[in-house]
Design brief:
alpha/beta; 2 domains; 7-stranded mixed beta sheet; 10 helices; 15 strands; 26% helix; binds NADP nicotinamide-adenine-dinucleotide phosphate
Length: 330
């Protein structure tokens, strides 16, 4: 039997148990050109909250009654498509379920000799691509520039810290709590990490970086974005990767009051969606894999067990319960 998590009801605020239906279902059967995949790891991503809202975004919402959308990695059990055979390992949009049927063009081979399932959803997967293209293509990081990144103990932020370090750039992280800040400095190599729960981010940034910020990589929005924007240097770039502080209450999001600092500093602010870089993922993946192999990058994954724990595990992204890339083994 399959086990699935379907969207039962669109949530208001934080998704609760009544947002989902978790049920046993017959095994799906692959048709021509399709694969049956046993899902071994499911990626939990902040964007999932946005996909639950009705209305237009960069992709359509998950429909009521549909299996919750999710990236995953797993093993092919049955193939009705050329180029794939049982036992092959793949990643793709498999959804929150134990077994998935997908068109073979939506499954990408992965090599477990390079990295385990979880890592293909983390530094070698979508968050890794986000860090790479956000920092280098949108942030246009140059040698010697100063980087600040929020949600620095998370999947994207943790890699941004390490990529900036590997480039030899000074980097300061912002994260919630002492344990996370310790990891950002000791494992990811940041010069400093500001615990935003322990005090005034704006003042701490001024202390840590009196010279100002060249690239601010924003994952959280809200007051932290505003604090970072106070310290921009001339021609700084503010990378709008995400705004997780507002995902459960989009209606109350307000922009930074000090946005005229962009004018004063001749700076710019730019958003991006990682999917637009898909034709170049191989380039980023090769770069990150090489850094993993020689130790310039470490991967931190927070792996949980049990598909039935999906509802409460997802909410941890919005309360800071995860350290590194959050993954569920179904
Ligand atoms: P993550 O950082 O591993 O997990 C989310 C973290 O956000 C939490 O651990 C928590 O860390 C922090 N957080 C939650 N609520 C917060 C709040 N109110 N204020 C400050 N921090 C808060 O998640 P991720 O997968 O790496 O994603 C990070 C960001 O990148 C998200 O905004 C996501 O939407 C975005 N993203 C964008 C793209 C794109 O294409 N633009 C692609 C992927 C991800 P603390 O304990 O430190 O608070």
């Amino acid at each position: 039997m399959n086990r699935t998590v379907r969207l039962a009801k669109r949530p208001t605020g934080m998704p609760g148990p009544d947002t989902w239906t978790i049920a046993e279902e017959p095994m799906p059967v692959p048709g021509e050109g399709e694969l049956l995949v046993e899902v071994k790891a499911i990626s939990l991503d902040p964007a999932m909250r946005g996909w639950l809202n009705e209305g237009k975004s960069y992709i359509p919402p998950v429909g009521l009654g549909e299996v919750m959308r999710a990236n995953g990695a797993g093993v092919v059990l049955e193939s009705r498509a050329p180029g794939f055979a049982p036992g092959d390992t793949v990643m793709g949009g498999f959804g929150v379920q134990r077994y998935a049927v997908v068109a073979s063009r939506h499954a990408e081979p992965i090599d477990l000799g390079v990295a385990p399932f979880e890592r293909w959803l983390g530094v070698l997967g979508m968050p890794g691509m986000t860090a790479w293209f956000g920092l280098f293509d949108v942030g246009l990081l140059r040698d010697g520039e100063t980087v600040v990144v929020s949600a620095a103990a998370g999947a994207v932020g943790g890699l941004v810290v390490q990529l900036a370090r590997a480039r030899g750039c000074p980097v300061v992280g912002i994260a919630g709590g002492e344990a996370k800040c310790r990891m950002v400095v000791e494992r990811f190599g940041a010069d400093a990490c500001i615990d935003y729960k322990a005090g005034d981010v704006r003042a701490r940034l001024a202390e840590a970086l009196p010279q100002g910020i060249d690239v601010y990589f924003d994952n959280v929005g809200g007051g932290i974005l505003e604090a970072a924007m106070t310290h921009l240097r001339r021609r700084a770039r503010v990378v709008i990767c995400g705004a997780i502080s507002g995902y459960n209450d989009v209606a109350s999001i307000r922009g930074p009051r000090n946005y005229l600092n962009l004018l004063i500093q001749r700076a710019r602010m730019e958003g991006f969606v990682v999917f637009d870089y898909a034709p170049r993922f191989a380039e980023a993946r090769a770069g990150i894999a090489a850094m993993l192999a020689d130790g310039r990058v470490v991967a931190v994954e927070d792996v949980r067990e049990g598909i039935d724990r999906f509802p409460e595990t997802l909410t941890e992204l919005y309360t800071g319960g995860n350290m590194g890339k959050l993954v569920l083994r179904p």
